Amino acid sequence: MNMLFIIGLGPGNPDQLTPEAQTALAGVTDLVGYGPYVARVQAGPDVVRHGSDNRVELDRARHALEMACAGRRVAVVSGGDAGVFGMASAVFEAVKQGPPEWRALDIRVIPGVSAVLAAAARIGAPLGGDFCVMSLSDNLKPWPVVCERLRHAAQAGFVIALYNPRSHARPDQLGEAFDLLRTELPGDVPVAFARAIGRADERLLLTTLAQARGEDADMSTLVLIGTPLTHRIARPDGSAWLYTSRRVPA
Amino acid sequence: MNMLFIIGLGPGNPDQLTPEAQTALAGVTDLVGYGPYVARVQAGPDVVRHGSDNRVELDRARHALEMACAGRRVAVVSGGDAGVFGMASAVFEAVKQGPPEWRALDIRVIPGVSAVLAAAARIGAPLGGDFCVMSLSDNLKPWPVVCERLRHAAQAGFVIALYNPRSHARPDQLGEAFDLLRTELPGDVPVAFARAIGRADERLLLTTLAQARGEDADMSTLVLIGTPLTHRIARPDGSAWLYTSRRVPA
């Protein structure tokens, strides 16, 4: 049966790529995905790399499905986990809309360490309670929906992890999100800006909701907003850990 | 400097344990955690295994911190990712309450593939949109808080991933949760019961919110509740994939 792999490459550090993903990647003829992720994969000279821009997920997914149906061994790759704002949803959306033979493919999604898990681990245990994971981008959903979701998340007491917090085209939305959250949560709630965790250009900033500024994030940053049950532990060297209590008082 | 590792072992399949975790485990003298997870680690005969019951997280964390301060090389282990309803939060809570020397430890949290990511990958791409991850247990938080969070999550349009959906001591709460969600969401919203994904006794059931029953879950099940944007793709062999659309209409 023709196969298609959808593979999460992890945060960037090769030590965080699972053996399962590595084994799958070792057998492919074609790599499909956003250029920088395709470039990151260690593969032999015969493997064809189909890197593309990050706005063409559905086209890219269809191309991968066509090649898989033609008998190529294709891996669609994403950073982190492909199911979390990666390529997995686009591939299945293409399958749903596509010809019947795509449904007969053996499609295997190989999970990876997502950016939110890597960032949380670097910070301490900020996801210790219930949490939500959102994309702040309004490319695929209306901005009022984003705001409504932030409000529900804060009222629910979820720790909030934000993907795609800021881009050149959306410089102000993260600041607006902080303004909205400041109306729902105390100002001393911890906020973390975790940039490129696990890569050479990693940078971590811990602050509070009162102090948090949109400008502290870029496209490679994961923003974590705590709850009143998220605590800061100061360390002797001046650094700190954050953790969220598992216990919620009555 | 004395060190302490907190390590996520992944869902159970050794192929899903990262090289980073494997390297860290290779250097330890002591393993601390819930018995079945401690037993799962491949380690030499000199490694001391401190397996314990699953209700004593804080005691277990303190024991690990004490041993680390005494110069032992200790790993606290959890299934999946230690930051997601695993041991990481308990360790930092113990640090916060403990003696100053615990804050000077070099504590390294090694992320893992969490159960929710493994289950989602097995199902297709159910986490394609925004989502939340909750523990349904009321051992550490009041049941009304759980219900309020479910309501916010449904109203926000989050896919909902439920850890600890059911136990012998809490046989009826998952059914109550489904009843509550049926008042907020259409009955045809997809629901998945993903049991022990990645292990030999794996079992997957796809159904709808209207049909979902608490009895379909046990302690090893991860329950995923979709949204009106979660779609089912029927396959020629009778199985199906679920995915959640990345696009939210206005």
UniProtKB/TrEMBL annotation, chains A, B:
Record GO biological process: cobalamin biosynthetic process; methylation
InterPro entries documented for this protein: 4pyrrol_Mease (IPR000878), 4pyrrol_Methylase_sf (IPR035996), 4pyrrole_Mease_sub1 (IPR014777), 4pyrrole_Mease_sub2 (IPR014776), Cbl_synth_CobJ/CibH_dom (IPR006363), Precorrin_MeTrfase (IPR051810)
Enzyme class: transferase
Enzyme Commission identifier(s): 2.1.1.131
Domain Tetrapyrrole methylase: 3-212
Coiled-coil region: none
Pfam family of the protein (one): TP_methylase
Record bears the keyword Methyltransferase: yes
GO molecular function, one term: precorrin-3B C17-methyltransferase activity
SUPFAM superfamilies on file: Tetrapyrrole methylase
Alphabetic keyword roster: Cobalamin biosynthesis, Methyltransferase, S-adenosyl-L-methionine, Transferase
NCBIfam families: cobJ_cbiH
Name of this chain's protein: Precorrin-3B C(17)-methyltransferase
